[in-house]
Amino acid sequence: MAAGFSRRRLAAYVAEQIAAGAEVSALLRQVAAYLIETRATRDVDVVAATIEEALAERGIVVAEVTTAHALSAALQKQLKTEVMALATAPVQSVQLRQVVDPSVIGGVKIALPGQHYDGTIQHKLTALAGTK
């Protein structure tokens, strides 16, 4: 990142703008342009994770949900409720980032900032194989 403008400061700015209702796609274009301009595109994953941490500090949680099949709208709503219950800090809203991975066979894996829950069949089978 360019000197004088840390990724944490960038993340805080983006999180504040999102919390205030700014258009996310426009903000992401600005961040991408900044990373390109400062030749810091190699840091994109770290910046994204830092933005998600800053959002979580403001009660906006991005949960990565991995399932074997795409989730219906009803299941998405139910998962958002479950994620709010699982979160260790107060949560105002939950955004789901869905990942479809047939290798999990069934069940769900949820990744929150600093928390991971794996209720997939793949995980249970791996645990059973480890106990033999």
What does this molecule look like?
The protein is α+β, with helices and mostly antiparallel strands and 132 residues long. 50% of the residues lie in helices and 18% in strands. The protein contains five helices and four strands; from the N terminus they run αααβαβββα. The protein has helices at 7-19, 24-37, 44-57, 73-86, 121-131, and strands at residues 60-67, 93-100, 109-112, 115-118. Strands 2-1-3-4 form a four-stranded mixed beta sheet. Helix 1 (7-19) runs antiparallel to helix 2 (24-37) and helix 1 crosses helix 3 (44-57). The protein is globular, with a radius of gyration of 17 Å.
Architecture blueprint of SSEs:
Elements: H1 7-19, H2 24-37, H3 44-57, E1 60-67, H4 73-86, E2 93-100, E3 109-112, E4 115-118, H5 121-131
Parallel strand pairs: 1-2
Antiparallel strand pairs: 1-3, 3-4
Helix pairs in contact: 1-2, 1-3
What's the short version?
This protein is of the alpha+beta class and 132 residues long. It has five helices and four strands; from the N terminus they run H-H-H-E-H-E-E-E-H. It has a four-stranded mixed sheet with strand order 2-1-3-4.
